[in-house]
Amino acid sequence: MDTVTDTKPVAEMVNIRKSFAAVQALKGVDLVLHHGEVLGLVGDNAAGKSSLMKVLSGAYIPDDGEIRIEGNKVHMSDPLDARHLGIEMVYQDLALADNLDITSNVFLGRELVKTHLGPISALDSRHMEREAKRLLDRLKIDIPSVRLLVERLSGGQRQAVAIARATAFNSKVIIMDEPTAALSVASIKLVLDVIRELKVQGASIILISHRIEDIYSVSDRLIVMRQGRKVHDVPVTGTLDEFREEVVAYMIGARDDFSNLEKN
């Protein structure tokens, strides 16, 4: 993978802790994301990776720790705060409206208004269609028309539309939660190609995935989490077999870079 040369972080999480009743989901986790970097985030079920990303996306408020965006300490009380800071999360269930077309999904909740007639507003449909088409073209997403209903798209195309929506409004950080889960081989390739194109354009991406080969294919760096702690943080190097063996060893606890950290 290409080495990321810009060392200024776009996002930092410092000593993040989060508990749900007696369960400690996050036990003092640090994370750094650089500009133009694809950061892979892996771990077994209940490792804490989704909880950590829900903190970064404003869905959870941490019990302790700091979040910094481009060096500035921020506080988020909900996902809208995160969105205003340029943080977008593409969830595994996509949250797309099947009965609406691609353009309507891209601008859902952010519709462009052309005129106001008293209490009635007229949407600028043509402008939104042009912008949706420009966005798909920029990401090299091959869909014949932005007027297609989402329910008519393949799994890979649906995921691509969800990613396009997340990048449509000058996002600083794009978080993707299992974007290739339950997709066909062709759809997986489409999604990974979109991630590669975003990286070429300088996007900063955090990719959560159980598919180690996908992490290896597109990521610059990898973080492994286990039992609410970060146990490994390294550049993606070596062959796929070597990489997979190393990742699995940290996931199951056979190896641990941070065994001196607090575990309770």
Describe it:
The chain has 264 residues and is of the alpha/beta class. It has a domain at 9-99 and 173-251: Rossmann fold (3-Layer(aba) Sandwich). It has helices at residues 49-56, 79-84, 102-106, 125-138, 155-167, 185-200, 212-218, 240-251, and strands spanning 9-20, 23-34, 38-43, 64-69, 72-74, 87-90, 113-117, 120-123, 173-177, 204-208, 221-226, 229-235. The protein has a six-stranded mixed sheet with strand order 6-9-10-3-11-12, sandwiched between helices. It has a four-stranded antiparallel sheet with strand order 2-1-4-5, covered by helices on one side. It has a two-stranded antiparallel sheet with strand order 7-8. A hairpin with a 2-residue loop joins strand 4 (64-69) and strand 5 (72-74). Helix 5 packs parallel to helix 6 (185-200). The protein is globular, with a radius of gyration of 19 Å. The two termini are 35 Å apart. The relative contact order is 0.18. Residues 2-6 and 260-264 have low confidence and may be disordered.
Spatial order of strands in the largest sheet = 6-9-10-3-11-12
Strand content: 25-35%
The number of distinct helices, counting runs of at least 4 residues, comes to 8
Would you report the number of β strands?
12
CATH classification class of the domain at 9-99 and 173-251? Alpha Beta
What is the CA–CA distance across the termini? 35 Å
CATH topology of the domain at 9-99 and 173-251: Rossmann fold
Rg, rounded, reads 19 Å
- CATH homolog superfamily of the domain at 9-99 and 173-251: P-loop containing nucleotide triphosphate hydrolases
Molecular shape: globular
Unreliable segments of 5+ consecutive residues: 2-6, 260-264
Binned, the helix content reads 25-40%
Overall mean pLDDT stands at: 89
